[in-house]
Amino acid sequence: MLQLCSSGGHVVASATLYGGTHALSTHFLPRTCNITTTFVDITDHEEVKNAIVEIRTKVLFFESISNPTLTTTLSPMVLSPARLSADVVVHSMSKFICGGADVVAGAVCGPASLLNSMMDLHQGSLMLLGPSMNAKVAFELSERIPHLGLRMKEHCLRAMEYATRMKKMGLRVVYPGLEDHPQHHLLKSMANKGYGFGGLLCVDKESEEKANRLMHHWKNSSQFGLIAVSLGYYETLMSCSGSSTSSELNSEEKALAGAGEDKWSQFERAISRTMDSIL
């Protein structure tokens, strides 16, 4: 955004974004760069059109699928925004693309003119602010990308299995692979065939307190999963986004933002040991 917007610039963004991006747009950019953002319901096309300010609006910024409701980590195997006419695509490579939860990296994909301008010696945001990828990290990622397709298929297969079984158990599950998800058919129409609906699902516990109590109970009483936020790891990870990756959002903004058999058996044991007061 720093490369596309100058002082006085304007961004129209989805109200459901990763917490760090929301904080950057709400607090940091207005204070330091005089770049403002209008947040909208990205599914309401009229609201998006009405938010655009002639001359000033330089960027329409949104995530697919949105975070924290579910999520930015589909990877290009599941969804390819460039094929859907996105001009610039930003990938988090720390998640599923990495697959090992051991690097911090990202990728910007777009026109050569934009990428070259970002690396300009005198005015390039990448060149002057320094977010250049470590050579060792780049090498490690290059060795993991060839099997990304295989990994994503398995992630998505297990997530779908968990979501289906959890729903049958009576848990409130949010997963775009389930037909009762409000945007199931939308994602199905856009996603690359054969890769499923993503490797992340949400169990709705209605409050951060209940969610955190449940996670700690599963982890400490039944040794199910790990409590961590670096998605795409080869172990089952759990996180309450409201008190972690989306903790920058206030209560109103949060409201707007709206398996293998052995592992499933472990999950079932964790559920059975969870007291009614926690559920």
TrEMBL record:
Cross-referenced InterPro entries: Cys/Met-Metab_PyrdxlP-dep_enz (IPR000277), PyrdxlP-dep_Trfase (IPR015424), PyrdxlP-dep_Trfase_major (IPR015421), PyrdxlP-dep_Trfase_small (IPR015422)
Gene Ontology terms, MF aspect: carbon-sulfur lyase activity; pyridoxal phosphate binding
Single GO biological process annotation from the record: transsulfuration
A cellular-component GO term for this protein: cytoplasm
Known cofactor(s): pyridoxal 5'-phosphate
UniProt entry keywords in alphabetical sequence: Pyridoxal phosphate
Pfam family, one: Cys_Met_Meta_PP
Similarity remark: Belongs to the trans-sulfuration enzymes family.
Name under which the protein is recorded: Uncharacterized protein
Species whose genome carries this gene: Gossypium mustelinum (Cotton)
Organism lineage: Eukaryota, Viridiplantae, Streptophyta, Embryophyta, Tracheophyta
